[in-house]
Automatic annotation (TrEMBL):
Residues making up the signal peptide according to the UniProt record: none
Enzyme class: isomerase
Protein name: (1->4)-alpha-D-glucan 1-alpha-D-glucosylmutase
Domain Glycosyl hydrolase family 13 catalytic: 11-696
A GO term, aspect molecular function: (1,4)-alpha-D-glucan 1-alpha-D-glucosylmutase activity
Keywords, sorted A to Z: Isomerase
EC id: 5.4.99.15
Keyword Nucleus attributed: no
Organism: Microbacterium paludicola
Pfam families: Alpha-amylase
C-alpha cells in the first residue's frame, strides 16, 4: 500500500467542480503537494455544497462533473504526479427530497417489499410496518383537515415509476401501487383513506421522539442511516467507489463518521479486502487529545490512522501560554450567569443529558425496545429510558469496541450512578447488556454514544464555554488549556511510532475556526488582562444579555476581523442557536436574536469598531507568528500533513459554511511564482510568508523523504528556551517560536541556542546555511519566527524519490 506524503483538501461542488479542480493540478504540484484530497463525489442532494448528503451511491454527481469530470481530473492529477484521496460517506444517505434518492423513494413506495428495504436501518415493527416521517408543521389530523395534504396521480416527469404522489408544501412522497386517486384532491376523507394504505406515515416534526423509526446521522432527520454491515448493501453502495480504485481514478479513501456504523472494525476489514489494501484514513475523534490519557485509535482497525484532529489539538496547545489560564478562568467566572454550570465538565454533562432527552430521544427509545422483554418489564420503560440517557451522558469517549473497553464502560457506570443514585440499580442492570458481545443492543448502544457526544460536546458545550476560542475545536478537550514542550514531543514520538501515515490537520471543513483565527486567539492567553479590559468595554456597547455568549461572539469577531457583516451575522446566529442558552434552532427567541444582531451591527461602526481594531492591532503580529509556527510544526512533524484549500495564505474563516468560501487560486499562483523568483516576503497582509512556509515544507517532504524518517527532540538552551520548540526528523530540522508576546517582553532571544545535529544545513525559507552545533536563535530566527533546515546531501548523492509505504498491519 502506497501512502501519501502530503495532501491538499479540495471542496468539490457545483461552483468548483472536477473540471475546475483539474485546472489547478499543476498548481498543487508546484506547491509541493503529493496527493489531492477530494470532498465526497457521489450524487448529492441538489444545492448541497458539502456532498455528505449522498442520494445515489452508484454515480459521480453530475453537478460536480460526473464520471467524465472525475476521469478528467484524475488524468490531470496523474500528469502532475499527484495521487488522489476521496472522501466517502458509508454511514448515511440524504433523504430530504425522496424523489432525488431512488433507493429511499422505492422504500417509501414499496415498504418492506422494496428491493432496498434492507439498505436503510428502519425499525419496521415500531412503525407498524411503515416508515415514520416527522415532516409536518402540525399533527397529521390537523394537516389533513386544513387541506394541506394533496393526493394525486403522478404528473409527467414528477416521479420515477410511482402511480401517484402525496404533496405537503415542498414535500412530495410516492403512493403505493394501486392507491392513487383518479384525480388530485385534498378532500379529508379521501386523503385519510389513501394515507392509511401507504408504507409511510407523516407526523408532526416535534413528535420525532416517538414517530421516527429509522436511524439518522446525529439528529438530522434528512440523513438516513445505511446498513453497510449487510454484505449486499455494502456491495451496492460501494460499486462506484471500488470502480475508482480498480480503474486507477483514485488511490485512497477517507471514511466519514465510522463511529456511526454497526461494526466499524468489520467495515474497514471488508473495505481493505475489497480494495486490495488501499490507503484508508478514518474521521475518528479521539477524546482528551493532547493529554496523557488520550483515547487511542483501535490498533486492530484496517486503517492508516485518523484524519488529524488529534494532531490539531496538540499543536494548538503547544503554542498557548499556560500562565493565562487562571486569569481567563476568573474572567469566565464573572461572565457566567448564576444558574450556569461552573466547570467545563458540568457544562458537558448538562448538554449531553439534554441531547439524550431530546435530539436523541428516538434513538434512546430504540435502545429500550432492544432490551430483553423480562428486563424491560422489570425496569419499566420510563426508568429504562432514564437510565440509558444517564449512561450515554456519562460516556467519556465516542464509543467503545467490545470486547475492548470494559474499563470505560465501568467508568461510565460509576459516573452515572454517582450522578443519579436513584438509577444505580437500573444502570447496573443495563451495563452488561450494552457490552454483551455481538447483540443488537450492544451494536445500537455503540451507535448512540457518538451522536450524544457530538451533539452535546461539539455542537453545544463548545458554544457555552468560550474562555479561549482556540480550545473549543473538534477533537480537542477545552478543559485542557495548554501542552508543555515535553508533552508535545511525547505526542509526536507516539505518532511516529504508532501512526506515521495518519493525516494531520490544522483546518478542515468541520473546524469551528480556521487555523489562523485560532492562532490569533491563542495570543489572548498571553495578555488576558488586556482581553478582559477590551471585553468589558465592548459589552458596555452591545451585549446579548449572556456574558459567556458575549465572550464567544466578541472573540469570533476579533479572530476573523476584518469580516463582512453578513459573515459575522451568519456566525452569530449559528453559534447562539447551537449553544442553546438564550435561543435555539427549534425555538428561536426573537428578543434574544435581536440583541445578538445588534451586537454584530455594533461591531462594524463607532466605538466598538475602534476597540476591535485596537485589539486586533495588538493580536495580529503575534498571531501571525503563531500561525507560521503551527503550520511548520504540522507540515514537518510525523504523519501526513493535510492543507485545507486556501489556507496556504492567511485564512480567517469561521465555522461552516464560512470555511467553504471560494478560493482565489490565481492569486496563489501569482504569489508562488514570485517566491520561486527569489522574493523573500515580509510577514504582511498578503500572506506570502505563510505560502513560503507551506511550499518549502511540502516540497522538502516530497523531494527528500529520506530527511523525514524519525523524530528526535532538539535541546534549546538559554534564557528564552521556553519560547522555542525544535526537532529533527532525520535530517530536516524544525525550529518554531512559541509565546511571542512573552518573548518580546523579555527582550528577545538573547543568548538562547538550539542544538543542531552535525553537518551543514540550509534554511529552506531564507537560503542561509548553518553548521551543526549551538545555533543562536537570534540569528536563525532573525527573518521569520520559524526555520526549516535541511541537511545538505553528501557529495555525489542522488536525489531520493521513494514513497513511504504503510505497515501491513495497519494497511
Amino acid at each position: 500500500m502506497t501512502a501519501p506524503i502530503s495532501t491538499y483538501r479540495l471542496q468539490i461542488r457545483p461552483a468548483f467542480d472536477l473540471a475546475a479542480a483539474a485546472e489547478i493540478a499543476d498548481y498543487l504540484r508546484d506547491l509541493g503537494v503529493d496527493w489531492a484530497y477530494l470532498s465526497p463525489l457521489l450524487a448529492a442532494a441538489e444545492g448541497s455544497d458539502h456532498g455528505y448528503d449522498v442520494v445515489d451511491p452508484t454515480i459521480v454527481d453530475p453537478r460536480r462533473g460526473g464520471a467524465e469530470g472525475l476521469a478528467r481530473f484524475s488524468a490531470a492529477a496523474r500528469d502532475a504526479g499527484l495521487g488522489v484521496l476521496v472522501d466517502i460517506v458509508p454511514n448515511h444517505q440524504g433523504v430530504a427530497v425522496p424523489a432525488e434518492n431512488p433507493w429511499w423513494w422505492d422504500v417509501l413506495r414499496h415498504g418492506r417489499g422494496s428491493a432496498h428495504a434492507e439498505a436503510f436501518d428502519i425499525d419496521w415493527e415500531h412503525g407498524g410496518g411503515k416508515v415514520g416521517l416527522p415532516i409536518l408543521g402540525s399533527t397529521l389530523r390537523q394537516a389533513v383537515a386544513a387541506g394541506e395534504i394533496e393526493v394525486a396521480p403522478v404528473t409527467a416527469g414528477e416521479a420515477d415509476g410511482a402511480e401517484g404522489v402525496a404533496r405537503y408544501y415542498d414535500h412530495v412522497l410516492p403512493l403505493a401501487d394501486g392507491t392513487a386517486p383518479a384525480a388530485a384532491t385534498t378532500d379529508p376523507a379521501t386523503v385519510d383513506a389513501v394515507l392509511a394504505a401507504q408504507h409511510w406515515r407523516a407526523a408532526f416534526w416535534r413528535d420525532d421522539a416517538t414517530e421516527l423509526n429509522y436511524r439518522r446521522f446525529f439528529a438530522v432527520n434528512t440523513l438516513a442511516g445505511v446498513r453497510v454491515d449487510v454484505p449486499a448493501v455494502f456491495e451496492a453502495s460501494h460499486v462506484e467507489i471500488l470502480r475508482w480504485l480498480r480503474e486507477g481514478l483514485a488511490d485512497g479513501l477517507r471514511i466519514d463518521h465510522p463511529d456511526g456504523l454497526a461494526d466499524p472494525g468489520g467495515y474497514l476489514e471488508q473495505l481493505a479486502e475489497a480494495t486490495g489494501g488501499a490507503y484508508v484514513v478514518v474521521e475518528k475523534i479521539l477524546e482528551h487529545a493532547a493529554t496523557d490519557h488520550a483515547e487511542q485509535l483501535p490498533s486492530w482497525w484496517a486503517t492508516a490512522g485518523t484524519t488529524g484532529y488529534d494532531a490539531m489539538a496538540e499543536i494548538d496547545r503547544a503554542l498557548i501560554d499556560p500562565a493565562g489560564e487562571s486569569r481567563l478562568d476568573e474572567l469566565d467566572a464573572t461572565l457566567r450567569s448564576a444558574d450556569a454550570p461552573a466547570s467545563y465538565d458540568e457544562i458537558v454533562r448538562e448538554a449531553k443529558r439534554a441531547v439524550a432527552d431530546t435530539l436523541q430521544a428516538a434513538e434512546v427509545g430504540r435502545l429500550v425496545r432492544c432490551l430483553p422483554d423480562d428486563v424491560r418489564d422489570e425496569l419499566g420503560e420510563d426508568v429504562a429510558r432514564d437510565a440509558f440517557a444517564e449512561l450515554l451522558t456519562s460516556f467519556s469517549v465516542y464509543r467503545v469496541y467490545p470486547p475492548v473497553g470494559d474499563e470505560l464502560v465501568a467508568e461510565a457506570v460509576a459516573a452515572a450512578s454517582a450522578s443519579r443514585p436513584d438509577l444505580a440499580d437500573a444502570i447496573a442492570t443495563l451495563a452488561p447488556l450494552v457490552t454483551a458481545g455481538d447483540t443488537e443492543l450492544s451494536r445500537r448502544f455503540g451507535q448512540t454514544t457518538g451522536p450524544v457526544m457530538a451533539k452535546g460536546v461539539e455542537d453545544s458545550a463548545f458554544y457555552r464555554y468560550p474562555r479561549l476560542g482556540t480550545l473549543t475545536e473538534v477533537g480537542g478537550d477545552p478543559g485542557v488549556f495548554s501542552l508543555d514542550i515535553a508533552g508535545f514531543h511525547r505526542a509526536q514520538a507516539h505518532r511516529q511510532a504508532m501512526w506515521p501515515h495518519a493525516l494531520t490537520a490544522l483546518s478542515t471543513h468541520d473546524t469551528k475556526r480556521s487555523e489562523d483565527v485560532r492562532a490569533r486567539l491563542s495570543v489572548i492567553a498571553e495578555m488576558p488582562e488586556r482581553w478582559s479590559d477590551a471585553l468589558g468595554r465592548l459589552r458596555t456597547i452591545a451585549s446579548t444579555g449572556d456574558g459567556r455568549l458575549d465572550d464567544l461572539l466578541w472573540q469570533a469577531i476579533v479572530g476573523a476581523w476584518p469580516a463582512s457583516p453578513e459573515r459575522l451575522r451568519d456566525y452569530a446566529e449559528k453559534a447562539s442557536r447551537e449553544g442553546g442558552i438564550i435561543t435555539t434552532w427549534t425555538d428561536p427567541d426573537e428578543d434574544a436574536e435581536a440583541r445578538i444582531a445588534a451586537l454584530v451591527d455594533a461591531a462594524t461602526s463607532g466605538e466598538a469598531r475602534a476597540t476591535i481594531e485596537e485589539v486586533v492591532g495588538e493580536l495580529t503580529a503575534p498571531g501571525r507568528s503563531n500561525s507560521l509556527a503551527a503550520k511548520l510544526l504540522q507540515l514537518t512533524a510525523p504523519g501526513v500533513p493535510d492543507v485545507y484549500q486556501g489556507t496556504e495564505l492567511w485564512d480567517l474563516s469561521l465555522v461552516d459554511p464560512d470555511n467553504r468560501r471560494d478560493v482565489d487560486f490565481a492569486e496563489r499562483r501569482e504569489l508562488l511564482a514570485k517566491l520561486d523568483g527569489g522574493w523573500h516576503p515580509e510577514i504582511d497582509d498578503s500572506g506570502a510568508a505563510k505560502l513560503l512556509v507551506v511550499s518549502r515544507a511540502l516540497r522538502l517532504r516530497r523531494d527528500r523523504p529520506e530527511l523525514f524518517t524519525r523524530y528526535a527532540p532538539l535541546p534549546v538552551v538559554g534564557p528564552a528556551a521556553e519560547h522555542a520548540v525544535a526537532f529533527d526528523r532525520g535530517g530536516a530540522v524544525t525550529v518554531a517560536t512559541r509565546l511571542p508576546v512573552g518573548l518580546a517582553a523579555r527582550g528577545g532571544w538573547g543568548d538562547t541556542v538550539v542544538m543542531v545535529p552535525p553537518g551543514r544545513h540550509t534554511d529552506q525559507l531564507t537560503g542561509r546555511a548553518w553548521d551543526g552545533g549551538a545555533v543562536r536563535l537570534a540569528d536563525l530566527l532573525g527573518t521569520y519566527p520559524v526555520a526549516l533546515l535541511a541537511a545538505e546531501r553528501p557529495t555525489g548523492a542522488r536525489p531520493t524519490a521513494q514513497r513511504p509505504t504503510a505497515p501491513e498491519e495497519n494497511a
